[in-house]
UniProtKB/TrEMBL annotation:
<protein>
    <recommendedName>
        <fullName>dTDP-4-dehydrorhamnose 3,5-epimerase</fullName>
        <ecNumber>5.1.3.13</ecNumber>
    </recommendedName>
</protein>
<comment type="pathway">
    <text>Carbohydrate biosynthesis; dTDP-L-rhamnose biosynthesis.</text>
</comment>
<dbReference type="GO" id="GO:0008830">
    <property type="term" value="F:dTDP-4-dehydrorhamnose 3,5-epimerase activity"/>
</dbReference>
<dbReference type="InterPro" id="IPR011051">
    <property type="entry name" value="RmlC_Cupin_sf"/>
</dbReference>
<feature type="active site" description="Proton donor">
    <location>
        <position position="134"/>
    </location>
</feature>
<keyword id="KW-0413">Isomerase</keyword>
<dbReference type="GO" id="GO:0019305">
    <property type="term" value="P:dTDP-rhamnose biosynthetic process"/>
</dbReference>
<feature type="active site" description="Proton acceptor">
    <location>
        <position position="61"/>
    </location>
</feature>
<dbReference type="GO" id="GO:0005829">
    <property type="term" value="C:cytosol"/>
</dbReference>
<comment type="subunit">
    <text>Homodimer.</text>
</comment>
<dbReference type="Pfam" id="PF00908">
    <property type="entry name" value="dTDP_sugar_isom"/>
</dbReference>
<dbReference type="GO" id="GO:0000271">
    <property type="term" value="P:polysaccharide biosynthetic process"/>
</dbReference>
<dbReference type="InterPro" id="IPR000888">
    <property type="entry name" value="RmlC-like"/>
</dbReference>
<comment type="similarity">
    <text>Belongs to the dTDP-4-dehydrorhamnose 3,5-epimerase family.</text>
</comment>
<comment type="function">
    <text>Catalyzes the epimerization of the C3' and C5'positions of dTDP-6-deoxy-D-xylo-4-hexulose, forming dTDP-6-deoxy-L-lyxo-4-hexulose.</text>
</comment>
<feature type="site" description="Participates in a stacking interaction with the thymidine ring of dTDP-4-oxo-6-deoxyglucose">
    <location>
        <position position="140"/>
    </location>
</feature>
<dbReference type="InterPro" id="IPR014710">
    <property type="entry name" value="RmlC-like_jellyroll"/>
</dbReference>
Length: 195
């Protein structure tokens, strides 16, 4: 598995090795030992899958109290995936990065996006439909669920909405009520680890 750095500390693009022949291909998408050897630590407890049509924008989501790290993979279609650093102690606090993630094809590498705890996450669907699969390190926690507005002016995320042909993104009623970044209840500052 190849681990690629991104503009945000600790967010990684992962490219599992693909073994191909005339019959098709095989890839070991996740292996706990390989993941740990790459310096990524996770104990996954829940798998989620979504299906969305073009223009659907989900996010920006995060959880308080029971934060989730996520390992995101596109099974079909094409999305633009965004991570926002909410860790107040991080030099990247308030910064975002976006990634074009597509389903595996003969022309595209198999890619997964690793988003650790302390980040908000969202994506917009750029293809006619898309299926997104992601593993999480914590269970869904309704009481801790939070959302930041996708179009928050302080974050100024450059969503590729021109690909939607002038149609505004479709967001859920819950996401439409997300908070502005400066008003959002963010994760507490992590206490320093004593050695």
């Amino acid at each position: 598995m190849q681990v690629l750095e991104t503009p945000l500390r600790d967010v990684k693009l992962l490219q599992p090795q693909r073994f191909e022949d005339s019959r098709g291909w095989f890839a070991e998408v996740f292996n706990q030992s390989t993941f740990a050897a790459a310096g990524l630590s996770a104990n996954f407890v829940q798998d989620n899958q979504s299906f969305s049509v073009k223009g659907v924008l989900r996010g920006l989501h995060y959880q308080l109290g029971r934060p989730q790290a996520k390992l995101v993979r596109v099974l079909s279609g094409h999305i633009w995936d965004v991570a926002v650093d909410l860790r107040r102690e991080s030099p990247d606090f308030g910064r975002w990065a976006g990634f074009h993630l597509k389903a595996q094809s003969s022309a595209d590498q198999l890619q997964l996006l690793w988003i650790p705890e302390g980040f908000a996450h969202g994506f917009v669907v750029l293809s006619d439909t898309a299926e997104v699969f992601y593993k999480t390190t914590n269970l869904y926690h309704r009481a801790g669920e939070r959302s930041i507005l996708w179009n928050d002016p302080v974050l100024a995320i450059d969503w590729p909405i021109e690909a939607l042909n002038g149609v505004p993104p479709s967001v859920s009623p819950k996401d439409a009520l997300g908070k502005h970044f400066l008003e959002a209840e963010l994760p507490p500052v992590e206490a320093p680890h004593l050695v």
